[in-house]
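Consider one such protein record:
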Amino acid sequence: MDQKINLDWPIYVLYKNGDVYVVILDLFKSPAIVKGPLEIFPKNQENYGENSCSILALPSIPTILCISTENGTIHHGIILSTDQENEDYILEMSKEERPSFIKNPDRALYIFECIELELGYLEDSISKTINFHPNQANSSQYFVYHLTGVHSIHLKCLERLNKFIDFENDCSEIDIFSDTSLVDYVLCTNLSQKVDEKSENLNPVIGFTIFYDFPSILILLSNSQLVTLPLSSLFSAPNLDLNDPDDLKNMNSPLKTILNEPFDVKIQKILQLSSNPILKIQQKTNPTQQECFDLLQNSSKLLRERFKNHFSAKNEIEKRLKTLSKLKELQKGDILKLKDDQIDLRNTAESLAEKYEDIKDKQDEILKRCETLLVQISKRKVEPSKAEKSFLGELEGSGEKIVLYGKAIQKLKEKIKYQEIQMKNWHDQTKSEHKSIGIVQIEAIKSNLQDMTEKITNMISEINDYKKQIHMK
């Protein structure tokens, strides 16, 4: 039987008073489970969400929530499960009137960062509706659009959080939330915030989306103007780990501080400390002299901050240039020293090769002398060795056998001559006395002759074997 997979899909719901509920939806079951409100940490802050208006859950592990208020404050918090339920918090919630289907929460929201958005080009503040739009191509970036423009927010902590989750060994030294989020004011649609949503001077954003085929953002304004910006220009450079952190800690060289992060990332961080938004305001707007003066002051202030950042970037570039120049000089000195060492090593290798050849020739000469000495020593020995004694014994035995075989051969030759004479006489007698010999006598003679022939053949083969053995020895 196929087992059904339990797929819980959490949906986070935000109330205007800042309470956050979670709706756990199982795709194979019904009804959904509602838990909340979530306990928010740290508790020393009086209020996290007066006039809360929007919520966004980033696709991270664990989930990061972005909660905005109408005055332009955005809270970043991380959802973590609680091992034990807080009894005081549960009792406090039980005093409030709450439907019975809402269960006690098993997770809590930990706020780690608060961001104040600049709603408008001037410094006044009114309540506005904040809208979120995630970037599907980069989970650490999302956009905020409202009546007075568009902001781009990049959470740097997500990079460290992913590294923390993937780290198998001890990761206590990783500071996840050390990097603050980067906020870029992309588009400004109103200079003054002393207006309401029905004012004719407003040119609010009424539509926002991201086009991923050629990554860009599309912004539709109330005056039917469509603003297109490339998404690549809003990306923050990734924090590339060019070297292993453990290796960097053990390094004792000027490159240690240089290799902590890429230089272009460092310069980009300095230049991103202040941003100049694109102005898209109503052309029919007739600002007052005070508004023009405030605009001029604020623009001058932003430009001065921008120039400060440029000067800081210039100083960093000059420091890097000086450091690299010194390193270049040191490396040139090291190269010259290495070249000298190379020449010395080459000369040493040549001398060693010559010595090796001389030693080899002397060794061959000594080996030849040793062989000659061994031969001379073996010749001067009075007593033969065991091998020589055994060989001499074999030779003596072979000589005796040769003498015996010679005598036997001589006897055989005499017998052969005798047999030849007998055969001749027999043939002569056969011719004269053929009629007087009977069948019995003929068969006896044949059998005698066959026996003698076999004996002679065996003796000849034995003689040949003895000759072969003598020649081999």
Q: What stands out?
A: The two ends are 90 Å apart (CA to CA). The chain has eight helices and 17 strands.
